[in-house]
């Protein structure tokens, strides 16, 4: 059951989810990136560079070891997902910027994640570890589940705009359901060792989640002087595509232990994003 879910069900679900990201894109999103590149550049640098560095700092401070450290670092290499787009809408952030960052950073990820993840495995597991990341397979998998579906979604949006609009809320709910099902399956697969891993990785996952959201919001306020864009970058940097991280750790590497930190993070980020949204709406858009 667990192997079927991770090898077949998870890639298919992720293809569906990323098609939804493509269906949320509009030509105006790319026009906005071209005419106002600063906000996109700040968000992309925070996502692709600062977040992995922050993850390494958290791993060092909390002294995470072996698979737990690799799992948390792989999560930090992932782009945002439909969850960040949803919370950007709920918190009255810049939704166009959110969708642009999710999609375009997602196009870059297949070329950065395999090599950085392989480096992390050598760093934290040692060169003699039996666990090795197949670079070509990982790259092809990320293209198939993360890039091509976005392009298909954009084509669907252009051809059937009304269908794309109606499908968006359903896809967001589906992504949450898939993530929860995966986490339950991983917990069952780990059995009695689950609580041990939770105690080890939980504080680090919480710290990374809160620090990354604070980093994104602070950079947005400092460099962009825009409350809406600051909220967007906060959510894009703080809400990672946990489903993609679990595809790498469970589907490709087949390591339940490596999946613990992404699973814990994915659960915590819903709580932190909800609190942030409540705070943002109470504060208003001034």
From TrEMBL:
GO terms for cellular component: membrane. Its main location: membrane. It holds the Pfam family SBF. It is a multi-pass membrane protein. Keywords: Membrane, Transmembrane, Transmembrane helix. The chain crosses the membrane at residues 6-27, 39-62, 68-90, 97-119, 139-158, 170-188, 194-220, 232-253, 259-281. It is found in: Membrane. It comes from the Bacteria. InterPro entries: BilAc:Na_symport/Acr3, Bilac:Na_transpt, Na+/solute_symporter_sf. This is Bile acid:sodium symporter.
């Amino acid at each position: 059951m667990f192997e079927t879910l991770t090898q077949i069900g998870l890639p298919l679900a992720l293809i569906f989810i990323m098609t939804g990201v493509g269906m949320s894109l509009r030509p105006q999103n790319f026009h906005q990136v071209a005419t106002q590149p600063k906000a996109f550049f700040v968000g992309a640098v925070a996502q692709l560079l600062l977040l992995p560095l922050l993850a390494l700092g958290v791993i060092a401070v909390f002294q995470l070891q072996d698979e737990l450290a690799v799992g948390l670092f792989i999560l930090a290499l992932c782009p945002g997902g439909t969850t960040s787009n949803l919370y950007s809408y709920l918190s009255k952030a810049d939704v166009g910027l959110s969708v642009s960052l999710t999609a375009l950073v997602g196009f870059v990820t297949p070329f950065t994640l395999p090599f950085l993840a392989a480096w992390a495995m050598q760093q934290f597991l040692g060169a003699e570890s039996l666990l090795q990341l197949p670079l070509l397979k990982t790259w092809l998998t990320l293209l198939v589940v993360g890039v091509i579906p976005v392009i298909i979604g954009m084509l669907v949006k252009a051809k059937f705009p009304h269908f794309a609009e109606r499908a968006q809320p359903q896809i967001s709910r589906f992504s949450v359901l898939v993530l929860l099902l995966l986490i339950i399956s991983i917990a069952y697969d780990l059995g009695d060792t689950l609580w041990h891993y939770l105690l080890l990785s939980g504080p680090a996952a919480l710290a990374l989640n809160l620090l990354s959201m604070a980093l994104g919001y602070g950079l947005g306020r400092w460099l962009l002087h825009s409350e809406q864009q600051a909220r967007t970058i906060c959510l894009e940097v703080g809400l990672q595509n946990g489903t993609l991280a679990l595809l790498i750790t469970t589907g490709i590497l087949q390591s339940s232990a490596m999946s613990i930190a992404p699973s814990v993070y994915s659960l915590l980020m819903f709580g932190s994003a909800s609190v942030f949204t409540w705070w943002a709406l109470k504060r208003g858009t001034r």
